[in-house]
Amino acid sequence: MRNLSVVTEFILLGIPHTEDLESMLFVLFLGFYIFTLMGNLLILLAIVSSTQLHTPMYFFLCQLSVCDILFPSVSSPKMLFYLSGNSRVISYAGCVSQLFFYHFLGCTECFLYTVMAYDRFVAISYPLRYTVTMSHRVCAILAVGTSFFGCIQATFLTALTFQLPYCGPNEVDYFFCDIPVMLKLACADTSALEMVGFISVGLMPLSCFLLILTSYSCIVCSILRIRSAEGRHRAFSTCSAHLTAILLFYMPVVLIYLRPTPSPWLDATVQILNNLVTPMLNPLIYSLRNKEVKSSLRKVLHHLGFFPEQL
């Protein structure tokens, strides 16, 4: 069979309807990207440097921070490169890599939120068994499992997209290579693959969301059985940050991949929120209402010379 995949590079057209705004967008997105990297690095340093935070909850928060550093790094450097007036061309291999790592890190994060919900469920519902249930071995298996299954899902979606022939148009009407825009460029009927991709992309987040919902339903029942008001407040406070992060993660997924009629401008806006703003907000969400993290952050910032010693 003759190979029709003659396209060797693609041209990223960028965010729709933003002509002549490149300089402003470059400054804005560069600021988001820098704050995302700095915030998540500080969270990592705060947790690693404090033995008090060496618990399963903060172990998974470390993994989330790593994902939040890598996730925007899949598409942001190239986007900033062409917004600064450089070439919009991306190689075929670069496009494949973007799509794979975007879905690999996104799926890993989705599985990770599910694991974090399970961790909170065990901590609040079965506190006496927590250290046994969430042992170092179990935490390591869960952490590796999130990446492993994320890799499987991303490999399937990438293979599904790039087994199609790309033999003609090579202009990607988006700011990075993603499944919906790449399928439009294929020189073949993509209706069956679009349905398979829709089911695959929708089924995995939906399954994770249902598991998270189950965990938090059990958590709420357990919290309502706590007699002291202070105990209930502490339990709700611990879970509120996680629930906020989950909502910020799932809303863009639903809006981008599960709508019947896509809108390029809306998709790009929501994708920017998902790629840059959510990873930037996660360190704030997890630190503002957490005394242990704030205390450790003060120590880290003091060692870096940002805070005086009395803080």
From TrEMBL:
It is a multi-pass membrane protein. Residues 39-286 form the G-protein coupled receptors family 1 profile domain. Pfam families: 7tm_4. The keyword Membrane applies. GO terms for cellular component: plasma membrane. The chain crosses the membrane at residues 24-46, 100-118, 138-162, 203-224, 236-258. InterPro entries: GPCR_Rhodpsn, GPCR_Rhodpsn_7TM, Olfact_rcpt. The keyword Transmembrane applies. It comes from the Eukaryota. Keywords: Cell membrane, G-protein coupled receptor, Membrane, Olfaction, Receptor, Sensory transduction, Transducer, Transmembrane, Transmembrane helix. It is found in: Cell membrane. Its main location: membrane. GO terms for molecular function: G protein-coupled receptor activity; olfactory receptor activity. Putative odorant or sperm cell receptor. This is Olfactory receptor 149. It comes from Callorhinus ursinus.
